[in-house]
Amino acid sequence: MKRECGFTVVEALVGMALIALILLFETNGRIWAMRENMQTRYMHNATMLAQLEVAKAYWQPFQFVVAGTTTTTYKVGAHTFTVQRTVTTDIPLIGTDTVHVDVTWDSGAYSTDTIIEGLRR
Predict the structure, then answer these.
(1) Which of 29, 41, 85, 109 holds its CA 20 to 30 A away from the CA of 13?
(2) pTM of this prediction?
(3) Domain boundaries of the chain, sorted by first residue
(4) Range 9-117 has CATH code 3.30.1330
């Protein structure tokens, strides 16, 4: 009796199906990682822009910080961020200002609040 070597067609098909499933899951994982990386980059840029707006209010002499809302648009690479800074005076205490910053872009938003006191320098 002759001994046969090699794989049968069924074994080869099962192996190919297994490799296809592994490649499918691996590709989906890479796509998810790329999306998360992009979202993290947006959030990083939004955080830096919010810090910039808070710093603008912080480094002004306290008596010149005016209550109200300002809106600024920044272009970072190919993406546009809209930053809205709202300053309210004497909240939560007399002699303090609250700076609220909202940063929005096409796929998300970031928000922060900071309290600035009159005797900061």
Answers:
(1) 29
(2) 0.71
(3) 9-117
(4) no
